[in-house]
Design goal:
It contains 8 helices and 7 strands; from the N terminus they run E-H-E-H-E-H-E-H-E-H-E-H-H-H-E. By secondary structure, the protein is of the alpha/beta class. It has one domain: NAD(P)-binding Rossmann-like Domain (Rossmann fold), CATH 3.40.50. The protein is globular.
């Protein structure tokens, strides 16, 4: 593989939004390392789909809520990159992996709170920190937030708050990494019809219609609505976008 080819690391790239991000990155000529939590077969299918596009890809297991595993994970990343490219660095980090939580504040447990914070905030902070030595100057970071950081829906207090923290963290990344010409931005999807949260938006007809009614474009989002935005931010066309929050919700709750 030619050394000038860009490489992206996408967490949670085996399904849903992450899968489409990985495929969209491949579509613009970026090779992909994707992570998966437990379903290796799904991840390997995405690798095959990327290879069918003429790009290189590999899948590595990672639990983004376990900071203590990150050093060993990046050792594996570096080894793969050395073997494939002759140098152990990559260009773009996409922090996408996540889980849902639907609990009113009065019912929120410390265990569920810790799980969300570990995956959606602490894990993102330290996975990004430990990526910095391997991230090429002039590259980029895309953190995935949520429309729930802007508007409030009952039951999403902890999840939405963690995403709000990521949006602030992203602006600090943009400021602190500017001297390396590394850009950092946030993409905030609205309600998307995937298996996220047990397929809540995709499979519940009443929920689907409710979201459609509060969205200016009159439908729920699809995974394909998000991946191309992430790819754009990792392209030359997005070179002057930095420290920004881009909401991709079809105009939800305007």
């Amino acid at each position: 593989m030619a050394t000038q080819v860009k490489i992206a690391l996408v967490t949670g790239g085996s399904r849903g939004l992450g899968r489409d991000m990985a495929l969209s990155l491949a579509d613009i000529g970026i090779d992909v390392i994707l992570t998966y939590h437990s379903n290796r077969a799904e991840a390997e299918q995405v690798v095959s789909d990327i290879e069918a596009k003429g790009r290189w890809a590999t899948a590595l297991q990672l639990d983004t809520g376990k900071v203590g595993t990150f050093a060993a994970f990046y050792d594996r990343v570096e080894q793969y990159l050395q073997a494939e490219t002759g140098q152990g660095k990559f260009d773009y980090l996409v922090n996408n992996a996540g889980v849902a939580l639907y609990q009113p504040i009065a019912e929120t447990t410390e265990e569920s709170f810790d799980n969300i914070i570990n995956i959606h905030y602490k894990g993102v902070v330290f996975l990004t920190k430990q990526a910095l030595p391997l991230l090429n100057d002039g590259g980029g970071i895309v953190n995935i937030s949520s429309g729930l950081a802007r508007f409030a829906l009952p039951g999403s207090a902890v999840y939405g708050s963690a995403k709000g923290a990521i949006e602030v963290f992203t602006r600090y990344l943009a400021k602190e990494l500017g001297n390396r010409k590394i850009r950092a931005n946030t993409v905030a999807p609205g309600a998307i019809a995937t298996d996220f949260g047990g397929g809540r938006v995709r499979d519940n007809a009443q929920m689907n219609q409710h979201v459609s009614n509060m969205t200016a474009l009159g439908r729920v989002g699809q995974a394909e609505d998000i991946g191309s935005i992430v790819a754009f931010l990792c392209s030359e066309g997005g070179r002057w976008i930095n420290g920004q929050r881009i909401e991709a919700s079809g105009g939800m709750m305007l």
